[in-house]
Amino acid sequence: MLMRNYHIAVVGATGAAGTELLRVLERRNFPVASLRAIASGRSAGKAVPFRSESVPVEKLDDRCFDKIDIAFFSAGGDVSRNYVPIACQSDAIAIDKSSAFRMEPHVPLVIPEINADDVRRHRGIIANPNCTTTVMLMALYPLHRIFHVRRVFAASYQAVSGSGTRGVEELTRQTRDAVCGSKSRGKPGSSTSPEAKPDKTIPASVSAQANVYPHPIAFNVLPHIDSFLDSGYTKEEVKMQDEARKIMHSQSLRVSATCVRVPIYRAHSVAVSAEFQRPLSVEEAREILSKAPGLELVDEPHSNRYPMPLTVAGKDNCQVGRVRLDCAFENGLSFWVSGDQLLKGAALNAVQIAELL
Ligand code: A2P
Predict the structure, then answer these.
(1) 49 and 68, same domain (yes or no)
(2) 133: part of which helix (H) or strand (E)?
């Protein structure tokens, strides 16, 4: 097949996922003829590194997509809703990381290891799935292919970089203030009455400033990602079911998830308990998981070896471990899967989609 070079635009090039996307394009030698790095007016005058060059950042506007072949979007839902159609009008193919178009029937939602063929029916937009859903499905799908998953209970442990650069900065600031002290010290949380002696197990200044999240994220966990729905689930939790159904072509699948933000920088983990139609053994599951593309089996609990955010961060592959028969489900398996949500959950998956094209 004749390989040509492509004119590429990256919208959100200064953000957490956009920065990673530039690195992945470079690392995987994607055939880039030209690159436009696009962000908001706030980034005017900045430049981003690509290969050995420094690429000036352009402010997003309607003309950014002239002569562009592939436009990667990672600047949030509002930007995607407004500018993905404009990119398509300019004959670019949009690979969109936001949730804006994911559930549109004509928009393929693709994890290349799972449903690469869906890319063929795109009409200009291909959606990159939710990062937590992707990490879960990298381990669930290989099992589903053989044993057919029916129901899933999942709890996620999601890193602050999933909220972009601002999430990372907020965790850093709150941690530093709590450990080193800050001007805000002396304004302890509401749980401390004036008479009470300070409790050394509660860092005093963590309660001070929370901008990105509704509560401090340092030294805390928040069972709250995205907004709450009438059902009591959050939008993030509903995505875990809706997107899993679409990607795995399994409309009857039921997923009950609790999504939790934890004070780590990078890589999401998901504790999964899944019920299958067919009986399965741990040995069979381990065999399948060890051969699944994009996945590594790290499952030697007696040697303290299991997937962790610190060991999976920066890696392309997700890791699965703690594989065991589930004691509450009939044909059930429980496992723990971790993955770098900026790579497999965003940039790497997007570039893999472009490679399919
Ligand atoms: P900027 O750096 O100029 O604000 P993150 O996910 O790390 O928060 O990054 C979000 C990315 O999306 C950044 O590159 C940011 O650019 C970009 N972005 C946010 N809002 C807009 C907008 N209205 N127009 C263009 N780019 C935007």
Answers:
(1) yes
(2) helix 131-147
Residue carrying structure tokens 């009455």:
193
| pLDDT, tens only, 242-285 | 999 999 999 999 999 999 999 999 999 999 999 999 999 999 99
For residue 15 and ligand 1, the question of a CB distance below 6 A is answered with: yes
- Looking at the predicted structure, is the pLDDT value of residue 189 above 80? no
Do 231 and 139 share a structural domain? yes
| CATH number of the domain that residue 271 is part of | 3.30.360.10
Residue range 347-351: mean pLDDT, rounded: 98
Token look-up 């430049």 returns 47
Residue 321 tokens, joined: 């471990």
Q: What contacts 118, CB < 8 A, 6 or more positions away?
A: 108, 109, 110
**Which residue range forms the structural domain that includes residue 14?**
6-129+347-356
For residue 184, pLDDT over 70 is answered with no
The answer to whether residues 113 and 14 belong to one domain is yes
Q: What is the set of active-site residues?
A: 131, 268
Is any ligand 1 atom within 6 A of the Cβ of residue 162?
Answer: no
Global pTM reads: 0.93
Atom of ligand 1 nearest to the CA of 168: 7
Give the pLDDT band of residue 187 (cuts 50, 70, 90).
very low
Instruction: Say if 262 falls within a structural domain.
Output: yes
Ligand 1 atom nearest the C-alpha of 19 is 14
CATH of the domain at 38: 3.40.50.720
Strands (E), 128-281: 149-158, 254-261, 268-276
Residue nearest to atom 14 of ligand 1 (CA): 12
